[in-house]
């Protein structure tokens, strides 16, 4: 990786914030890897505004080219990528290639099959061939294999020299000349960067949610879960209610821990999630746990933590009654939020995004043909953060071509 040491201002045409699959997809096209159809047409030259004006969603158009149906345009079942001149871009990120996938539980599984998690510039089928892997593209994939794929993606397309990791973004300003200034902290050194085009791809969990109760910073409280071996002792309390906390609770339970699982949501909502997720093995296991009424798994629905005490005691409210339990460890897995505080001075508009179960996050309102903010010129929302994308890699990856295509047109870099 590039360990940039100069404290002075560094200017680039494009800065991407975030090294997850969303940011990597944009970076690959800006590096010069452009998609072509079978007739040799550079697909980044498509007039996406014209598509949108005629009732065709541009992101759906590119998604069908990557994951084709019978009526796929151009009669092609894949992109053909060719190398062109690169744009002047860098990525600034807390994490290395893979973004937040570097920090999820060690054995975490995806919600969809492997080919839904791929980035089209480097198909996972080709990754299998290059690295002598046997990942089943139609089956879900675990963290280790997926993270290895994203890192190989970055290496294969020669992105690594332009990824500046271990950079915590502090603030963003837009100058009178239209450029953006980004301030970051790198090894306790304040750094300053500027760019003409800013791609905001920090992901939906760049800020960890807090319970906001007394004692939340005590040493037996953990704000993330990785693997059972990190939690000695028998009694574990988990606070959450989503897929990440479900994963932690089930894996720890199967490692002979006594689990108390505290969540705000109603029982019927959790049971519906379990029922509708039976295509995942760990939710099949959840169905068994619930059906067998396992005594080492206590689930407290419609409950909330009131405080944590120094003697490993947790006080919570359930059914309008206050109770206290003792636990060796507490794991808080209540998700995160996009760090829109970085953009608070830009007067952006947002759209509320829901999945089938609950509100998920605020998405930036963008022009659907380019994913450029409707409020701020040359600011692009990427991945989950763009209005009109789905909450999965297959749901947002095609948007990377809208962003990169629009920027490359402005830079006159499209052949």
CATH topology of the largest domain: FAD/NAD(P)-binding domain
Tally of helical segments? 10
Alpha-beta classification: alpha/beta
CATH-scheme architecture of the largest domain: 3-Layer(bba) Sandwich
* Rg: 23 Å
The number of distinct structural domains comes to 2
Please give the share of residues in helix: 10-25%
Largest β sheet strand count, sense and barrel closure? 7 strands, mixed
CATH class category name of the largest domain: Alpha Beta
Q: Taking all residues together, what is the mean pLDDT? A: 91
Bin the strand percentage. 25-35%
What does this protein look like?
This protein has helices at 21-30, 48-53, 58-66, 124-131, 143-156, 243-253, 267-275, 281-292, 393-396, 399-410, and strands spanning 10-17, 33-36, 80-83, 89-92, 109-113, 140-142, 163-164, 167-174, 180-186, 189-200, 207-208, 221-222, 235-240, 258-263, 297-300, 303-308, 313-318, 321-326, 329-332, 336-337, 350-354, 359-364, 379-381. The chain has 415 residues and is α/β, with parallel strands linked by helices. The chain folds into 2 domains: 10-206 and 336-410, FAD/NAD(P)-binding domain (3-Layer(bba) Sandwich), CATH 3.50.50.60; 210-332, FAD/NAD(P)-binding domain (3-Layer(bba) Sandwich). Strands 1, 4, 7, 8, 9, 10 and 23 form a 7-stranded mixed sheet that branches. A 5-stranded parallel sheet has the order 12-19-13-14-15, covered by helices on one side. A 3-stranded antiparallel sheet has the order 16-17-18, with no helix packed on it. The longest helix is centred in the middle third of the chain and has 14 residues, at 143-156. The chain starts with 9 loop residues before the first strand and ends in a 5-residue tail after the last helix.
């Amino acid at each position: 990786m590039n360990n940039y040491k100069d404290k002075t201002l560094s200017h680039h045409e494009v800065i991407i914030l975030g090294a997850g699959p969303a940011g990597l997809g944009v970076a690959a096209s800006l590096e010069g890897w452009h998609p072509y159809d079978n007739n040799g047409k550079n697909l980044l030259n498509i007039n996406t505004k014209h598509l949108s004006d005629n009732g065709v969603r541009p992101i759906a158009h590119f998604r069908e080219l990557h994951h084709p149906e019978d009526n796929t345009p151009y009669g092609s079942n894949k992109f053909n990528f060719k190398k062109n001149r690169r744009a002047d871009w860098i990525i600034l990120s807390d994490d290395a290639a893979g973004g937040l996938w570097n920090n999820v539980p060690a054995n975490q599984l995806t919600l969809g099959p492997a080919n839904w998690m791929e980035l089209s510039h480097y198909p996972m089928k080709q990754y299998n061939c290059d690295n002598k892997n046997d990942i089943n593209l139609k089956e879900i994939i675990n963290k280790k294999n997926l993270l290895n794929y994203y890192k190989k993606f970055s290496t294969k397309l020669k992105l690594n020299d332009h990824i500046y990791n271990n950079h915590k973004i502090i603030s963003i300003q837009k100058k009178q000349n239209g450029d953006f200034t980004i301030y970051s902290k790198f090894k306790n050194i304040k750094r300053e960067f500027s760019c003409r085009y800013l791609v905001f791809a920090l992901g939906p969990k760049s800020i960890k949610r807090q319970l906001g109760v007394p004692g939340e910073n005590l040493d037996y409280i953990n704000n993330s879960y990785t693997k059972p071996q990190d939690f000695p002792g028998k009694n574990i309390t988990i606070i959450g209610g989503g897929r990440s906390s479900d994963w932690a609770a089930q894996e720890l339970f199967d490692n002979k821990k006594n689990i108390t699982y505290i969540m705000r949501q109603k029982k019927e909502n959790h049971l519906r999630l379990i029922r509708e997720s039976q295509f995942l093995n760990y939710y099949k296991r959840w169905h068994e746990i619930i059906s067998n009424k396992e005594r080492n798994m206590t689930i407290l629905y419609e409950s909330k933590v009131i405080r944590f005490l120094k003697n490993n005691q947790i006080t919570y409210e359930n059914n309008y009654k206050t109770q206290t339990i003792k636990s060796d460890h507490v794991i808080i897995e209540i998700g995160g939020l996009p760090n829109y505080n970085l953009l608070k001075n830009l007067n952006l508009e947002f759209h509320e995004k829901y999945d089938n179960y609950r509100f998920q996050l605020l998405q930036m309102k963008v022009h659907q043909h380019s994913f450029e903010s409707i409020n701020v010129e040359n600011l692009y929302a990427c991945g989950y953060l763009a209005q009109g994308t789905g909450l999965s890699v297959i749901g947002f990856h095609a948007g990377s071509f809208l962003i990169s295509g629009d920027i490359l047109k402005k830079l006159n870099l499209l052949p």
